[in-house]
Amino acid sequence: MSFLNYLINGISLGSVYAIIALGYTMVYGIAKMLNFAHGDVIMVGGFVVFTLSTRMGLSPVIAVLVSVVVCTCLGMTIERIAYKPLRNATSLAVLITAIGVSYFLQNLALILFGSDIKLFTSVVKVKPLVLADGQITITGETIVTIIACMIIMIVLTTFIKKTKAGQAMLAVSEDKGAAELMGVNVNATISLTFAIGSGLAAIAGVLLCSAYPSLNPYTGSMPGIKAFVAAVFGGIGSIPGALIGGILLGVIESLSKSYISSQMADAIVFSVLIIVLLVKPTGLLGKKISEKV
Amino acid sequence: MKKLKLNKDYLITYGIVIGFYIIMSILKGTGNLSSLFSGLLVPICVYTILAVSLNLTVGILGELSLGHAGFMCVGAFSSAFFSMCMKDTITNSFVRFFIAIIISAVVAAIFGIIIGIPVLRLRGDYLAIVTLAFGEIIKNIVNILYVGRDSDGMHISIKDSISLGLKEDGKVIINGAQGITGTPHDSNFTIGIVLLLITLFVVLNFMHSRSGRAVMAIRDNRIAAESIGINISKYKLMAFSISAALAGVAGALYAHNLSTLNALPKNFGYNMSIMILVYVVLGGIGNIRGSIIAAAILTVLPELLRGFADYRMLIYSLVLIALMLFNASPKGMEIKEKISVSRLLAAKKQAKEVQ
User: Fold this and answer.
1) A129: helix, coil or strand?
2) Quick one: A126 exposed, middle or buried, by C-beta within 10 A (0-12, 13-18, 19+)?
3) Judged by CB atoms within 8 Å, which residues 129-158 of B form the interface with A?
4) What are the respective helix, strand and coil percentages of chain A, to the nearest 5?
5) B279 in contact with A at a CB cutoff of 8 Å?
6) Among candidates A34, A91, A266 on the partner chain, residue whose Cβ is nearest the Cβ of B140
7) Which distant-in-sequence residues (6+ apart) come within 8 Å of A221 by Cβ?
8) A275 vs B: CB within 8 A
9) What distances in angstroms separate CA A5 from CA A12, A139, A251, A284, one per listed residue?
10) Does A289 lie at the interface with B, CB-CB under 8 angstroms?
C-alpha cells in the first residue's frame, strides 16, 4: 500500500512540475528561448500569497488571485524590458539576460524578505481523503494539485485550439515571419504567452508551497530546473508532452526517493532524462525535424 | 602578413596576463593590496581558466554546455584525493601539486570523453540540458561518495562512512557531503598564472591548428564540413575533452586553495556552470582575451560592491542585464557604433586622406 502512497505523491509533485513545464514549453515554442527566470516567478507567486494570506490574513482565494495577477504582470514586464530588445539577438544573449533576471528576482526577494525559510500556511482547506482503512491517505493539497493540473491542461488545450489568440500562438511558434505576413501581431502574441506562462507559474508556486510549506528566495530555482527537464523530457514545445513529462518526472523522483535513496533522487531523475534523450533526441512527444541542406 | 598579425594578437593576450601578474605582485610586495583582494587572486586564475576552457566548447565548438562545473568538480576531487593520499609520501609540495594537476586533467578529460560520446550526438538546447543534467549527476554522486584508506587498501561506499569498514588505522578521505578536509594548501598566485598561461597556450594553439580549424568548420557548417571528409564526432570529442581537461585543472587549483572541499550547489552546481557561461558570453563568444577580462572583472565586481551590502548581487544582476541589452540588442549596437573609438579614428583618418 505504501507504493500507492508514493505513487500518488509522485503524481501530485509531477502535476506541479507539469504546470511549471507548461510555461517553459510555451515560451520556448514561441520565443525559442530558455526562460531561466521562470522558476523565480514561481517564488514570487509564493511570496505574494505568503504576504497576503499568512501575514495579512486575507482570504486564500483573494491571495491566490492577486498572486496570479502580479505574476502575469511581472512576466509581461520582464518580457517587455529584458527580452523584447533582444528579439533578433543570438539565443545565448537572451539566455544570459534571462539568468540576469533570475538573479535580480532572487536578490530582490532576499532584500525584501530575508534569507530565512518562511513557514507557508497551506491555502488548501480540503479535508484529506482516507482510503482502504487508513492505509492510503491522500492529502487535500494532493487532490487540489491534481485537479488544478487537469483543469489547466484542458482549458489551455481548448484555448489554443479554439480561439484566435491560441491559433496565433501556434502560427508564431511554427514560423514567425510567415505569421507576421498573415497579419498576426507577433509582439502581442509573445507577450500573451509570457502572461499565460507566468500566471501558471503563480499557481504552481502556491501549490508547491502548500505541499512543501517552506519558502525562501531560492525556492523556485530547483523546481524550475526540474520542470524544464520535464518539458525537455516530454518534447519541448508540446503541451501534452509537458504534462506527461512532468508527471513521469514527479513519479520517478518520488519513487526513487522512497525506494533507492533520497540523496540520489535528483541524479536518477537526470539520468532518466539523458537515457530518454539518447533514444529519442527530441523528447517523448517532440516533433522530429528533418534536416535541410 | 596574416600570420604575423595573429602572433601579435596572441602576444597581447599573454602580455595582459603577465602584466596583471607583475602589477599584482608589486602591489602585494609593497603591501598596497588589501587582504580581501589578495584572497581573490587565486580565484581570479581559477575562473579565467574556466572561462577560457568553456569558450573552447561554446565559442570554438559552438555547442552550449551548462555542465562545465561538473568537470571542475571531477578535477577538484580527483586531485584533492591524490594529494590527501600522497600527503605523507611526497613531501615536496611542488612535485605533489604538479602530479595532482596532471591527474585532474586526465580524469576530467576521461569524463569529458565518457560524457561527450552520448551528449555530442544531440544538438542545441537539448545538448545544453543534458550537459546540465550530467553536471548535476556528478555533483550528486560526489555528495554520497565515501572513500577511506587503511592498511588493507582503499574502501569505497555510497552509504556512509561506517559502512566503509575501516580498521583502527584507517582514515576517511572523501566523507560524503562533508567532502575532503585538510587538503594541502598548494595553490598560489604564481602557479595560477602559470596554469592560466598554459591554458591560453593550449587553447590559442588549438584554435589555429589543423584540428582547431576542423572544429571551427564544423561549428560554421556541420554538413559542409562532413561532406569534405571531416570526422565530426572525432573533432567534436577532441574539443570537448580538451575543454573538460582544462576545467579539471581549474578544479585542482580551486581545491588546493581551500582547506575543505565539498560539492555544494554554489561551487559545483549548475549555478556555477551558468556563472562561467556568463563570463564567456560577456567577454564575447569565441574571443579568448574577452573571456579573461570578463572573468577577472566579474570575479572582482561582487567584492567591490561589498560596500552596498545586501544590494550588491542586485546591482550585479542589473549590470548583467544592462550589459547584455547594450551588447546584443540592435539599439545598443547602434549606440555602440556611434561612440566606438575605432570608428572615430577611422573617420579622422579618412578626413585626413581627403585633405
Assistant:
1) strand
2) middle
3) 129-130, 132-134, 136-137, 140-141, 143-144
4) 75, 5, 25
5) no
6) A266
7) A39, A40, A43, A102, A106, B271
8) no
9) 11, 10, 11, 26
10) no
End-to-end CA distance of chain A: 55
Residue of B128, B140, B278 with shortest CB distance to A96:
B278
pTM: 0.84
B78-88 residue pLDDT tens: 999 898 888 77
Q: What is the mean pLDDT of residues B138-165?
A: 79
User: Taking all residues of chain B, what is their mean pLDDT, rounded to a whole number?
Assistant: 85
Distances (CA, A) of A287 to A148, A174, A175, A274, B51: 27, 12, 15, 18, 34
Tell me the shortest Cα–Cα distance from B353 to chain A, in angstroms: 36
Per-residue model confidence as pLDDT tens digits over A91-112: 778 888 888 899 899 999 988 8
B68/chain A closest Cα distance in angstroms: 16
**3-state percent breakdown (helix, strand, coil) of chain B, nearest 5:** 75, 5, 20
C-alpha span between A80 and A103 (Å, rounded) = 18
Q: One digit per residue, pLDDT tens: chain A, 293 residues? A: 688 888 988 999 999 999 999 988 888 888 888 888 899 999 999 999 988 888 888 888 888 999 999 999 999 999 999 888 888 887 778 888 888 899 899 999 988 888 888 888 777 777 777 776 777 778 888 888 999 999 999 999 999 999 999 999 989 988 888 999 999 999 999 999 999 999 999 999 989 888 888 888 888 888 888 888 898 888 888 888 899 999 999 999 999 988 887 778 888 888 988 888 888 878 888 776 666 65
Amino acid letter, B55: N
Min Cα–Cα distance to chain A from B279, Å: 10
A273/B contact by beta carbon, under 8 A: yes
Q: A216: helix, coil or strand?
A: coil
User: Is the CB of A111 less than 8 angstroms away from the CB of B274?
Assistant: no
C-alpha distances out from residue A243 to A4, A72, A138, A249, B28, Å: 20, 21, 21, 10, 58
Cβ separation A97–B325 shorter than 8 A:
yes
d(CA B66, CA B19) in angstroms, rounded, equals: 31
What are the extents of the domains in chain B? Answer: 2-354
Cell numbers standing for residue A191: 507577450
* Rounded Cα distance, A119 and A287, in Å: 42
Residue B235 pLDDT > 90, yes or no? Answer: yes
Query: What ipTM, to 2 d.p.?
Result: 0.82
Residue B301 touches partner A, C-beta closer than 8 Å: no
User: Residue A286: closest CA among chain B residues belongs to which residue?
Assistant: B126
